[in-house]
Design a protein that fits this description.
The structure holds 2 protein chains of 2 kinds. Chain A is an alpha/beta fold. Chain B has a 7-stranded mixed beta sheet, with helices on both faces. In chain B, strands 1-2-5-4-3-6 form a 6-stranded antiparallel β-barrel. A two-stranded antiparallel sheet of chain B has the order 13-14. Chain B is about 20% helix and about 35% strand. Classes of the chains: A alpha/beta, B alpha/beta.
Amino acid sequence: MTHNMSVDLCGVRLKNPVMTASGTFGSGAEFSEFFDLNRLGAVVTKGVASTPWEGNPTPRICETPSGMLNAIGLQNPGFEVFAGRDLKFLEETLLPDEEPAEEGSLALSSGMTGTKVVVNVCGHSEEEYLDCVEKLSGERRVDFLEINISCPNVREGGIAFGTDPKGVERITAAVRKAARQPVIMKLSPNVTSIAEIARAAEAGGADALSLINTLTGMKIDVERRTFALANRTGGLSGPAIHPVAVRMVYECAKAVRIPVIGMGGIRTAEDALEMIMAGATAVSVGTVSFHDQRAALGVIDGIEDYLERHCVPDVRDLIGCVR
Amino acid sequence: MKYTEKAIVLECDEIGTRIFSLRLRTEHIAAAALPGQFVSVYANDSARLLPRPISICEADPKSGVLRLVFRIAGQGTKEFSQLKPGESVKITGPLGNGFPVDAARGKRVFAIGGGIGIPPMLELSKRLTEDGQDVTAVLGFRDELILLEDFPCRTVIATEDGSRGTKGNVLDAIREIDLDADVIYACGPIPMLRALKEYASARETECWLSMEEKMACGIGACLSCVCSSTKIDEHSRVRNKRVCTEGPVFLSTEIIL
């Protein structure tokens, strides 16, 4: 029995529902030494801004039980280097979609779907977001834009845009107008009602939502009697946050009609399937890649095994099956 | 080329207070390792998500045996200290750039290690000695001596309490023996590296420092482990460098301490 693993994300076909999570995977080059990126549904890049960002002082990370705190501060080399180096790498590495073989033709073309590219975009101001979005509009290899309005680790931009429904609607509409690719708004869990933010993004014209970004946290180093991170607070990620993420994916998927991409602490196929059953069309594997470079492949294989074991012909049958 | 392997534990011995020597049989990593490189060691308990970066103390390409010497700093390294012969542990490596051994050719070399920065100086001293270079290992301890007998070259010792060698730090020992070097390689605590950077700058001596920083991925993707650089870095395009990838070894003039 063959199973369909492909899903439709705002009109674009993903070969499987498993993507990487922004900030945990660079632009893929480092991980390509450990596995073939062409197996992924999509590669999601680390956030890029129109100009280079230096990021926060160190220590930028610390481990917590089944998780970690980070305050990288969106360090990135800026659009130009990103396009000339990182996007070029992805273009050279990822195979394009294959045309399906014509009926009656003996060609061996399988009509295989290529791995998609999602570029995560950050900015200090609305102008900076729009500047970067406009620059990315000309990049043919970019299949989606993911707009980071939820980074807890930068003072300006990031989460400042993501916590007020009116602000979310406004920036979504502005980005939607400037963008040529489908726009995914990445939401923060550090709000009272994430469903309300989700509805605001949908009202602003978002094509999809991704959630959750990290939960703001703090760790004290008791030996040194100071903060474990130089930034004092950081974003909590890893398996510890998974149940929170599942709950929020469930709430948002019920609140909007646009697709939701679920992320937050996915370690195994079971974790990913929870997100899908809660309503996610696709999932992102993030922090666990630090524990196991090939973790995303394990999730893909595990979902296929599940379909086999449960005689489910199509992974799409599982999206939102738990209500 | 980086490898992720299940390495087999050959022995795990306490060689100092809370300091352990772990010998592992590796398939590829020991053969590929250079002095000054490190490996990521993963806890079996996945509640401890992040690998621990541990420098390579010895690597034998023929037998595939890798030796790591580490101090227990938390729960992860505590788990590694309890490994038993025959058990396996997941490691990724070799990682980072390592010491540029060619820079030593025909020159007088100081291989300077302070505290738990001593282990990587052992493989470096061995390779340089095998290569026929003139190496002096300058080793700074608090009080307890580790690895001293393993060094194949001339050693100079400093102890904080003065129980052996010069009382004081590695620079006090260097001044006392009145030796000079054309190239310095060093690993140890930041105050030691800072002092060596100044010492090398005053004498215009080439000086390579091995840095340490909290890491997550260990392979250059997450940008957790950066250090400040004097110039715009080629990869980051800002004034910082990834310790795991551009480092851990940097020319002292490239970085700000």
